[in-house]
Design brief:
The complex is a heterodimer of chains A (319) and B (282). With 319 residues, chain A is mainly alpha-helical. In chain A, 66% of the residues lie in helices and 0% in strands. Chain A is built from 13 helices and no strands.
């Protein structure tokens, strides 16, 4: 507690020439602004304590519980709980659970890819349009729709393309073998919030493309296709990849839409965690849910590890 | 190719414009049809039209209870979030810049944990806690935060989930004002610390505070995962349970909740614009 940080950054020159902490006080370069500063010296960090405490308890404890639980036997297992084991992890990467994981990964990758490919032309259409109202309307709508995940989305689609949905009845889709409660159906529903998210993510990057670059390319006799292939796309690539990864992450973490819509027909890892938590697994495997959660977190960490550097990279080009 | 080069000045531009219209039209159809169909579905009736799904809402069992619970949770979540974040962020800007990267990382970390996994972790703690803390006062805490009338454990989950959003919003707001100059000016004029914060700093952050609050509110109003797995029944979980028996009503409520989100975001945009106008004209 007594080690309140005294922010007196010794200038590099002072340390080199004084050689010690005591000598730095005699450094010949006193900063003139310093004495007049009035700040809560040493006490200001106290205001951050509640946040840290909350984080430690609210986030730290569950995180520890996941890691410990994933590697120990559950309390209802024979021989008591708390023994170290790799069974949970092993079970979580085989059989039905592994199928669910692969299916989740496949769905997230496919929807993220489609949303990236569809979102880019929409965003480009908005950016190049000279009507400000159009731009405003599309971006506002994207903001709403990108947040329109979860239950309402699922119910809206059930009402549209479900077994008794309006469009299904109108076009007699069931006769053609259509079912919303399938992988394809889920893909269409996920795109409904992923495409707007992509439009929101990529618009600033498209705004950053300068008209001069295009003009320069055209003056050098580049066609529009050549301009896109050799100028625009390389510049956009970090933003596009970053957007893709972001969409992947949010599709991967989604739970409510699938839970309300498809039930068990499409296995997803988020659904299998919920099932395991509500006790729909064999006795003694309660900690399996925590192992599955750990797998999910590993995927999400990888996603962020790709996303954050990409975001920084695209910011460098398009500022 | 030959055509393109011969008629460059006018034709490519027109082509681009046509393409733009087609893209926007297709996108518009894809995004409007489900909403329109859902709206039609909610009033569709074998005998014509019926607005029963909307009129019967108030008297539906559990509707008001779950709505109040959600609103209560939302208000408490917003308050807790602001009370945790605002002092910390101001302090970090003014006095402890070295803590800034730490807070930055902490507030981004919840993004890495999907809501399902976070809920699993919380359940892990809630199960583990009573086993070891049976004889200590902490046990009462575990009972208290799981009170079905007002589950504080959900507030913890919601605060964590909205932490990244709210942090970004507040951080952007703080970046827009020169906090140190403001505070020094206020202090030099003889204002006490609380006075400087409440009458000078917070009014300047009004837009950012509202922004963070609205984002959190929208998140809490729509959150389903944690609440349903933990076994509570706020509004989204109620919609889900209604969906099993009364499809029309669940669709009607979905449309209403979309409209509410839309209003919130419009409000957000308006507040943001007003603030910008004020700063530019003054």
């Amino acid at each position: 507690m007594t080690t309140a940080p005294t922010p007196v950054p010794t200038t590099p020159a002072a340390t080199v020439h004084g050689g010690g902490a005591g000598a730095s006080a005699t450094a010949p370069t006193p900063t003139p602004a310093r004495p007049t500063r009035r700040r809560p010296r040493g006490g200001s960090w106290l205001a951050t304590v509640p946040l840290f405490l909350f984080f430690l308890i609210g986030f730290g404890l569950p995180a520890v519980a996941i890691v410990i639980g994933a590697f120990t036997t559950s309390s209802d297992a024979e021989g008591g709980g708390g023994q170290f084991t790799l069974d949970n992890i092993r079970d979580s990467v085989q059989g039905a659970y592994w199928t669910a994981m692969l299916s989740s990964l496949k769905l997230s990758a496919l929807t993220a890819l489609l949303a990236t490919l569809i979102g880019l032309p929409i965003a480009q259409a908005v950016v190049t349009s000279r009507q400000t109202w159009l731009r405003q309307a599309v971006l506002t709508a994207s903001g709403v729709l990108a947040n329109f995940g979860g239950l309402p989305l699922a119910f809206a689609f059930v009402a549209t393309l479900g077994n008794a949905g309006e469009v299904t009845k109108l076009l007699h889709l069931t006769d053609h073998g259509w079912s919303l409660y399938s992988f394809t159906g889920l893909t269409i529903v996920y795109l409904y919030f992923l495409i707007p998210l992509m439009v929101l993510t990529i618009t600033p990057a498209l705004d950053g493309l300068r008209v001069q670059w295009r003009e320069a390319a055209h003056n050098n006799r580049a066609t529009t296709v050549q301009y896109w292939l050799h100028v625009a796309l390389p510049i956009l690539l970090p933003s596009l990849l970053g957007g893709f990864v972001l969409l992947f992450g949010s599709a991967f973490a989604a739970y409510a839409t699938a839970a309300a819509m498809v039930g068990a027909t499409v296995p997803l890892v988020s659904r299998s965690i919920a099932d395991a938590l509500s006790g729909n697994v064999l006795v003694g495997q309660g900690n399996l849910a925590l192992a599955l959660s750990l797998n999910m977190i590993v995927v999400a960490v990888l996603v962020m590890a790709v996303y954050l550097p990409l975001q920084r990279r695209s910011a460098r080009w398009l500022s | 190719m030959a055509q393109l080069t011969s008629a460059r000045p006018s034709s490519p531009r027109r082509k681009v414009r046509w393409w733009r219209g087609a893209v926007l039209l297709l996108a518009g159809v894809y995004f409007v049809v489900p909403l329109a169909a859902a709206g039609y579905f909610s009033i569709d009736d074998p005998k014509g039209y019926s607005f029963e799904a909307y009129t019967g809402l108030l008297s539906a069992p559990g509707f008001l209870d779950s709505l109040w619970l959600t609103l209560g949770l939302a208000v408490v979540t917003v308050l807790v979030l602001l009370l945790l974040l605002v002092p910390a962020l101001i302090a970090v800007r003014l006095g402890s810049p070295r803590l800034r990267p730490v807070i930055d990382v902490l507030c981004t970390l919840p993004l890495v944990v999907p809501p399902v996994a976070l809920t699993a972790g919380l359940i892990g703690v809630l199960r583990w806690g009573p086993d070891y803390l049976m004889d200590t006062p902490f046990f009462q805490t575990f009972v208290f935060i799981q009170d079905p009338d007002f589950p504080l454990v959900l507030v913890i989950a919601y605060v964590l989930m909205s932490l990244p959003l709210a942090y970004r919003a507040l951080d952007a707001g703080l970046r827009a004002v020169d906090l140190r100059t403001l505070v020094e000016a206020a202090r030099n004029c003889g204002a006490s610390w609380p006075r400087a914060v409440f009458t000078v700093v917070l009014p300047n952050l009004r837009g950012a505070l509202l922004n963070a609050s609205f984002l959190t509110l929208a998140l809490v109003l729509g959150e389903f995962t944690a609440a349903s797995i933990l076994g509570y029944q706020p509004f989204p979980v109620w919609i889900y349970s209604v969906g099993n028996s009364q499809a029309h009503m669940s669709v009607a409520v979905s449309i209403l909740s979309l409209l509410i989100t839309w209003l919130l975001l419009l409000l957000l945009a308006t507040v943001g614009r007003e603030r910008r106008h004020k700063t530019t004209t003054s």
